Amino acid sequence: MKFLVVDDDFDSRRLVQKLLHPYGYVDVATDGEEGVEAFRAALGDGEPYDVITLDILMPNADGQQALREIREIEKEHGIAPEKAAKIIMLTGLDDSSEVHDAFFLGEATSYIVKPIRRQILLDEIEKLGVHLSKNEA
């Protein structure tokens, strides 16, 4: 299992990384631009991410912009929607227009309002059809 955590807040990034680490390899990025580049590199290496968490409010490229760019890259590579990365938007904003944009303009898979809770995040990933099993390493 391979995860990408994109968040400009160190504590949020570290928390999500810590929660996901028992289930697979976790890369981190500090803004949307870095997240898109990490996604592009992983795809180029033939090791795409299974699950990506994207904060919405970030410098350089925000989560909404990064989401749209990632979905565009997937389309350019001919990745079928059912094989696309599961992208969970994580945000402190409980804003209906942000939720709308994430789902309908960016094709987000899920949306969680912070604070991040371990069981909510893990349950949401499972609901998306991603089976989590702890690494034996």
From TrEMBL:
Name of the molecule in the record: Response regulator
Coiled coil: none
PANTHER family tied to this protein: TWO-COMPONENT RESPONSE REGULATOR, TWO-COMPONENT RESPONSE REGULATOR ARR22
Residues modified as 4-aspartylphosphate: 55
InterPro entries, per database record: CheY-like_superfamily, Sig_transdc_resp-reg_receiver, ST_Response_Regulator
Keyword annotations from UniProtKB, A to Z: Phosphoprotein
Record flagged with keyword Mitochondrion: no
Source organism: Nitratidesulfovibrio vulgaris (strain ATCC 29579 / DSM 644 / CCUG 34227 / NCIMB 8303 / VKM B-1760 / Hildenborough)
Domain Response regulatory residue range list: 2-129
Record GO biological process: phosphorelay signal transduction system
Top-level lineage group: Bacteria
A UniProt-annotated Pfam family: Response_reg
